[in-house]
Write a structure and sequence with these properties.
binds pantoate; single chain; 3-stranded antiparallel sheet; 6-stranded parallel sheet; Rossmann fold; alpha/beta; 19% strand; 9 strands; Pantoate--beta-alanine Ligase, Chain: A,domain 2
Length: 286
Amino acid sequence: MIIATTIDEVRKQVREWKNEGLTVGLCPTMGFLHEGHASLMKASHEQCDRTVASVFVNPIQFGPNEDLDTYPRDFEHDCKIMEEAGVDMVFHPEVSEMYEEDLCTYVDIDVLSETLCGASRAGHFRGVCTVVSKLFNIVTPDKAFFGKKDAQQLAIIKRMVRDLSFGIEIVGCPIVREADGLAKSSRNTYLSEDERKAALILSKTIRMGQTLVGGGERDSLRLREAMMVKLASEPLASPEYVEVVDGSTMQPVETFKEGDLVAMAVRIGDTRLIDNFFVGDPAIEI
Ligand code: PAF
């Protein structure tokens, strides 16, 4: 596995692969990898001739009161996971390689970024769209792989690719969960033992939501209320939102249909966790 730290190294290697007629897949990550990330890399390995993964904690997508400084990092362990998942090249740049000090060009998206996580994380999706655009320009992949856990991010990147004519296929991969149902996340590491138990309320609420939808519920307000009541049964949980939105515009809908998104953000102690399901996706088993 090649470890590249500069944009030039990545460009040179990708050019060689493309000259050989090989296709390239990209898996952008912020490191501290788990099976969720590995599933993206495996999908890329299956669908593309060569796989590039980036490991870069992107400062411009964190707000002033967010966890940039404490965001977990373990590059050595990340490398093991990437090797096993069939990654051919890792791009692991310093912040100074990615951003000039006087950076003043950003990629921003409206409408889709105004709801759900975007409502409380000002500037977050501008930071995501900017870094992902840069990675797309550096790696020029044929396909790029993103997890459905960050469902709003996935919808935003699909729209950005369409609106800016990137010509890259975006592949959304299913949420990977712990055996007890908790969606895998690098931030799960922040949870104390009691909080880890309490965090199960997210996947239990998702499961309950899927059961109601499976039983024919199509009214967003009723579904949200039932899910809020379930979340309220866990004293350590403070829900930030439970929303039902159109699967591509991320705008709230009164009644929902297949492909729409039921999403939630919940604080467990100081840790903000998200979980979701797309209406029509298979129910989670817990
Ligand atoms: O999902 C993430 O880990 C990040 O938002 C991404 C896409 C790697 C951009 O920094």
